[in-house]
Each structure stands twice: as C-alpha cells, then as structure tokens.
Design brief:
single chain, 23% strand, 4 strands, 4 helices, alpha/beta, 86 residues, Rossmann fold, 36% helix
C-alpha cells in the first residue's frame, strides 16, 4: 500500500495504553503513526523513535495544529480528555 493511502494517526499522552495502541497500529497496512505529543519532549522523542514516528511535540496544541494528522488518539486518563480538547 502506498504511503499516501495510509491514515495518519497522532497520539496524545504516551503511557502504557499509548504504547499498546502504537504497537497495534504497526500491524495495520492502512495506518501510520505520524505524530505524538507529551508534556515532556524527551519522552515524546523516545516514543516517536521507538515507533518510527517522524514528529514529536511537547504540547498537545502543536499536535492538534499538525495538518498532516488525520485522527488523534487521546491516551491520557479519561477525566482529562475534556480539558485537552477545549
């Protein structure tokens, strides 16, 4: 499958659930992890490198602004979701 046909994913919050989700994305032919975001840039860079992702951000807003990302998985605790997207 050509890269242009892949759905470009982003992940916010890079804990255990995000690691499992990113591992599962690797199994899909039509998915690509394009960007990740954490409040800690070192953690974001390490996560991006582990999953062959080209973009790592130290703010959630930067990932939301990335026009290449088509879908964002929010992997933070559920009680923080509303504050992240508003």
């Amino acid at each position: 499958m050509e890269n242009s046909q892949k759905i470009k994913w982003g992940i916010i919050g890079l804990g255990n659930i995000a690691n499992q989700f990113a591992s599962d994305l690797l199994l899909l032919e039509d998915a690509e992890l394009t960007a990740v975001a954490s409040r800690d840039l070192v953690k974001a860079n390490d996560f991006a490198q582990k999953f062959n992702c080209t973009k790592a951000y130290d703010s959630y807003e930067a990932l939301f602004a990335d026009e290449e990302v088509e879908i964002i998985y929010i992997a933070t605790p559920h009680n923080s979701h509303a504050s992240i997207v508003y």
